[in-house]
Amino acid sequence: MKNNPRALAVEALTRVFQSKAYSNIEISNLLNKSEMSDADSRLMTNIVYGVIQHKYVLEYQLEPYLKDKKLDLWLDLLLQTAVYQMCYLDKIPAHAILNESTEIAKKRANQGAGNLVNAVLRNFQRHGTRDMPGKDTIYDMSLLYSVPRWLVDKFVEQQGIDKTKEILQTINQPSNVSIRVNTNKTTVADLQKVLQEKGFDVKPSKISAVGLVCESGNLVDTDEFRAGLYTIQDESSMLVAPALDLQPNSRVLDACAAPGGKTTHIASYIKAGEGEVTALDIHKHKTKLIRSNSERMGYEDIISTGATDARKAKDILNTTFDRILVDAPCSGLGLMRRKPELRYFRQPEDLMNLQRVQLEILNSMVDLLEVNGKMVFSTCTFDDEENEQVVEKFLATNKNFELVPVKHDPAMDNSVKDGMLKVLPSDYFTDGFFIATFVRKN
Questions:
Q1: pLDDT tens per residue across span 173-195
Q2: Would you list which residues are annotated within the binding site?
Q3: Less crowded by CB within 10 Å, the N or C end of the chain?
């Protein structure tokens, strides 16, 4: 069934929820091994993301027909894929969904599994969808937007009810594709024109002067990408390099660099022979990604890589830097639009565990930063535990550091509070993000 989009969707979802795998990686792996048409590939991808984004709703709709039955994971997910198609994909006939799902169950297990799927889906078809709750309670919002209650509760506590609803209403919408233009090889206007001529509907980013945004399309498979004229990068992460206030002769440490998007952005400000970028990552195989990106973008003479835990960097580096970026490990809650499965895999204790790691990395950088040097701390999440609280605790134990306002474009003024920049997923339809800047005083 390697060319059956519905069967492959079930396979991808089973891998995601069984192994806490990333959906985009599992989709890519399965598509690479299949021989499906573009239409079937899109259907498979749609089903996978749709089930993850609406999982609680689908479970709620199936509940009356399953009672307390304990199903194998793949079978439960197969039923969810069917109900997703019946509820959200109105161009597919219900009988086709029902028949196909029954056949998948038979082939994957036995006649009994096929009979169960057939019975449940016919029951659902007969009775129609259950009414969804519509109040602004934590339970109702959790169900309606398929986000764990503890997360909704935290969002409400930190952002307020209205802002939480804005966030939840946007995270299940398809994300855009955004690219950062390599302005050392082309201009934003010229690249936009070239890509438009190739059929891509690209528009300038609202928050980054070097960004272009496209609703959909395979922007990796172009001659311009291969030539290093641009790289795939979310708009909000394009705000990090400018925050470092870089100069042509800056000596920069990118402490948690893979896969290298921000590293090459940093390098675009540096002049070869005058400045340099040292890019570290804890995983050796990921440093290959950084080198590959730097070569494609034309910055191999500026960027050098090393495989080490950033918390131990001070023990192996025998130099100091005037700029340091700590793009710290985090929960990734700001990525829920692009990686919707993250909402189900995170637990409340994860946030404090990650805070501890973030502080360890920041504290390990203290002696590597020169006096008057700048250190930028960034995350792709928007909860206080991994952001403002980290800043507060770092400053409390490092009296020779002070927080200074993040360097940013005036267009981002509304996203800056107390000198720190925080972007919510609903603000500009980008990833959620946080940036703070420290200066070493003495």
A1: 988 999 999 999 999 999 999 99
A2: 256-262, 281, 309, 327
A3: C
